[in-house]
Each structure stands twice: as structure tokens, then as C-alpha cells.
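User: Show me an example of a complex going from sequences to C-alpha cells.

Assistant: Sure. Here are the input components:
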Amino acid sequence: MKDIIRWPGIVFALLLVCLVYFLLEPLLKLVIEQTGSQTLSTKVTLDSVKIDWSKQSLTLKGLEVADKDHPMTNKVEVDQLALQIDVLVALTGHLIAEQTNILGIQFNTPRAESGEQDSADKSNDSEDTESSPGFDLPGLGLPDIDTLVSKENSLTYKRYKKFRQYLDDTKADYKARLAALKDKQKIADYKARFKEIKKAKGFMEILSAASKAKELKKDIDKDISEASQLNRDFKQAQKEIKRRIAELKKSPQQEADQLLKKVGIENGTQKISQFIFGPEMKAQMKKFKNWLSSINDSDTNTNENTDNVNTKTPTPERGKGVFVQFAQANPLPLVWFKNTELSGDLSGIGHDFLFKGSASHLTDQQTLSGQPTSLDLNLKSDLVKNGKVNIVVDIRTDQKLSLSFDVKQYRLDQTPLSGNFTIDSALLDTQGNISTINDQLAGNINADLNSVSLKTSGDSFKKYPAIEQALTDEDHVTAKIELGGTIEAPQFDINSNLDSIFDTVLKKVVDAQLAKYKNQVTDKIETMLQHELHSSESSQSDFIGMGDDIAGSKDIFKDLIGKL
Amino acid sequence: MLTILAKLLQFLNSNQNPNQLALAVCFGLAIGLMPSFSALLIILLMMIYVIKANLSLFIFIWGLFEVVAYIADPVLHQLGYAILTAESLQTIWISLAQSSFWILTAFNNSLVMGSTLAIITLWLPVYFLVRVFIVNYRLQIQGTFKQLKITQILKGSKFFHTYQRLGN
């Protein structure tokens, strides 16, 4: 044995083991940094690693994961990460822990040095500068009255012209009939016949004269009945003209109504809530979409190829060889924290909350852990009384994400909602749930704002001060938001009590405007009609004047009869 | 200074029986061929500290076989890859892949597998060949070397005297 074993060597080997024991921490630090960087395709750094052999626990301090797209920013930073692990498994590059405490989580913190990796996949996404459409109150498409009402196109004028035609034709007709009735020649002829009858002497002449007188009387009677008929017809015609004038006087109103039918409300919003809450919803959905994409990307990137045997011989780098992958009975994800207590700060992602809670099955490869990841967080802030968030992520199934939240009395101050609306102050209660099934988005959010002070801005509201007043007077706002569409193109159906307030006030304002405009249009048409009627007054007077002549024509013939 | 160097050389040149020299060559071959990222290398290094083998010869052979490994890299890779992808051996490899220890040895790396096979194949033949060579050298050739002029010059040096004094 003495010839084979070098006893000092054993001592030296033991010393080496002790050295490795003490070097294990830096070694693990290196392994975690390298594995993490490779897995996430970004720089992962640690301040220190501490191993507690008695508890088999590992404490990582100062963990920083750089943002691929912004190398001078950390996507996430953790003050302390304490976990109980299997060291041998950890040395193979798998960080699996039954119990983990993650403290001091922060997002988007600045880095001291760039976290750029050579293989970093620089995203082409830039900050979406899509601006929400400017808000414009619906208004009436009110054309200029002078353009709208023109003599050439006026219905009333056309009716007037028909009336005028009728009047002229009627006048001409009665003139002709009167002229025919009061024909001087005919009357002279009657008088001559009468004289002749009066001259009759002798029995035979008297007999003949009687017959002639009878005939004359018959002719005159005929004319008298003609004159009566004429008189009756004339009275009818007078009535008809009066009726037509009365009809004509109604025409401006009718025409104004018809014209206003063509003048509708412009394509303005039917729901003001869409404009108040829509842009904020779009912004939140965009953040949600980016977060969801980052989860999906990391799992896709880190899925190991656990297939057996590669079929072709690859050419390796000298001294490196090629690793042949073999199926593992229970392949492990690279990172898997089964039960985690966590705390941190969400201000880096635009939410001014501290959070504390628990998570289960935090992993980069759910396909290997075989469990959904869930988070239950309590939100804390000076601005909120109570807030809870629950998130379940399971990318193995169709329903990849389920998020629910409940926040009570969140104080909002000077919070812009969109270009034209700002909440000066309010207390918000909101609950909701959002889920994704494949790419389809579903969910609903209820928001209840109490003690609201809503401010409007922009020229749109100067047109309608009543609306501005009604909105700013309202101190309780409720909104119900239904989510639909896809993650790429989310759709929101937003209903709020502001809609009914807005519609009511807008309707009053618009109705008042329309009424005023209608009066203006009607006045213009009436003025035009009056002018035309005035120009036809002489013609009307002529026609009316004919009445005396027509009435008098009967008397002429009655006189003649009387003489007979 | 000379004393320290002599002492170091003395230490390195201890364990000079043929078995120890042969072991030194075998370990030098093994560690030279084995890639650095395998845990097997650590095991081999631990063994060289524990087992009595001539360290100076080991270091020399180790250096030599590092060069050999660089040259033989493609052959070792081909050999290892063929073994790892052999259908009849898949069951064995899959069962080894379930163990964290074997994963640490990087057995599924083509270079590690090729080197391991080469070491296993060469170990015994090299051991016996070296042993036979040393025995024959000492019996037949060593005397001739002692007569050479250069040997005389080296033996006359102060360093050699210090070395010899420490050996005695």
C-alpha cells in the first residue's frame, strides 16, 4: 500500500476538496450568470452567491437581468433571492428550488454598464407613436343658408310658379268668358231686336213680334244663366285661389323640414366613453401585449431539444466536441421555483405600487415543469386602500393567461385619460378579469369613480359649453369595459353613465341648434315667397276685381228682360 | 535558489520504479487527452495526487499529449460521436442521462467520449510497454548514456552535486 498510495497526496487532495468547497460560491455565480445569459439571450449578473450547507440553501444577491432592447436598463433587478436547491442539479445548470424568497424586485432600473450580448436579438419594436384620434364633438353639417335655399332649387318657388300660372290662366279664362258674355255686339243686337219687337203693328206683326220676343227672352235667359254660372264658377275660382295661397304659405315650413332631413349629424362619437377611456385602455393593452410576448419568447427560446440522436455528424469547434442530446425521463427546466414568496416595486412598469405575495411554479419552461404559473399579489401604495392581483399563466393550453384584479379606493390625481380629458381627482374602485384563449382576448373591467373632478380641454368643447358643464358637474362616473378581438388588435366596448349624460345634453343642444337653423331657413323661404306673392298682388287684384264685373253682367241681361 | 530547484527536482524524480514511471505516463496520457470541461478530469487529477507516480514524467507526458489531443481532435470527435449515436448503446446512454453526476462528466460530449475510449484502450498497453521499455533501458541503454560527454558535463555542475546530496 505504501508503494501505491502517496499519503501526503491524500492530504493534498483533501485540501483541494476544501478549496473547491470554498470556491463553490464563485463557481456557482459563474454558472448562474452564464446559464442565465445563455437562456435569456441577455446579460445576467450577480453581486454574490452564498451557500448555506446546513440548510442546503442558496442566496443570490444583486441579480440583474439586462433588457435586450435597452442594454443600459435592467429588465428586472432583484435585491435578494434565497432558495433551497439541490447543488448537484444546480451544477448541471438547472436552478430548481422547492422554496424561494425573492425580495426587492424592481423593473426597468438603470445599469452601471451595458448589458449587450453578441447574440442579442435586437427587437425592431420602437415605442409605438400611434396617437389616438383627436376628439371631436359631433356637430351638425349645417350648410350656408344662402347656398341651401336658392330660388332655382326652391320647392316653394316652384309651387309659387305653378300657382302664378294657374292664376294667370284662370284670369285669362274668366276674362274671355266675360268678354264673350258682355259682347257689345250681342247686346246691341239684343237691343236692336227689342226695338224691332216694339215697332210691331198689326195682328200678324204682333204675333210675329211675340214669337221674336220669346226667342229674344230665351237668348237673354240663356245669357243670364251663363252669367250666373260664370259668377258661381268665379266664386269657386276665388276660393281655389285663396286655398292655393294658403297652401303656398305652408310651403316654406314644409320645405325647411325637407331640407333639414338632408342635413344630419356628422359622424361624431355615439359614445363619449369610448373617447374618454379608450386611449388609456389601448395603452394598458399594449403593455400587456408586450409582457405576454416576452413570456412566450423566453419559453420558445429555452425549449431544449430533448429528442434522441442527431442524424448528421456536425462539425465541432476544436477542443469543444458536440453534445448529443438524450431523452431524459424527467427533463427539468433551467429555472423552476416551485413555491415563492416575493415582494417588490412596480413603479418601473408605470404602476406606483409596492407588491407582496406568493407565486407557484415560476419557470422559464412550463412544458417541462408541467404546471401553470400563478401569482397572487397584494398591492400597497399611499394612493390605494387595497389592491389584489391574481395572474395565472399556462402557455401549454389554449387559455394562456388569466388575470384578475380588484383595487379599492385608488386615488387618482391629475391623471390624463386622453387628449381632451383629465381626471383632476377621483377615487377609483375597479375590478376585472382578462383572459386570452389562443390569440383571442376576452374579459371585462368595471370601474367606479367617486368624487370625480373631470376636466375637459380643447376647442371642441367651446362649441358646446353645456356639454362641458354637464361632464364636469358629474361627480360619479361608472364604466363597464368589455374586451374582445385579439391581442394584436384588441377591441373595447365601453359603456359609461357619461354616455347618457352626454347624449341627453348633446341632444338638447343639437335640437336647439337645429330649431334655430330651421327657423332661419323657414324665414328665408317665407321672405322669398312673400316677395313673389307681393309681385303677383296686382294680378290677384285684377282677378278679384273681375268679380264685380261678373256679378254685374247678370244685371245687364236682367234689365233687358225687364224691358221686355 | 539552487537548493530549492534541486529539492523540487528531487521531489519530482522520486518514485522512480518502473511501475510508478509507467503510471505517470498513463496518467499523463489520460489527462492530456481528456477535455477540460469534463468532471472526469478532476477525478484523474485527484488520482495523480493520491497514487504514487513520477510527477516530472507525468507533467512532461501531459504536455506532450495535450499536443497529441489537439492533433487527434477530429478523430476523437468522430469516434465519440459514432459511439454516442450507436443504436445498440442508446439504452445505456439514456439511463446515464438521468443522473446529474454523469451529466457533470459530460459523457454525452463526442470529444469526452472519444477521449475516454482512447484512454481506456491505451491505458494497459501503454502501461506495460513503458514498463518493459524502462526495465530494458536500465539494463541495456542507461550505461551507454552515462558515458556520453554531455552527461559528464551535467554531472560536473553545481546543481547536480546539490541534487545528489539531497538524494543521499
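The lines above are the inputs; the final block is the predicted structure for all two components together. The radius of gyration of chain A is 50 Å.
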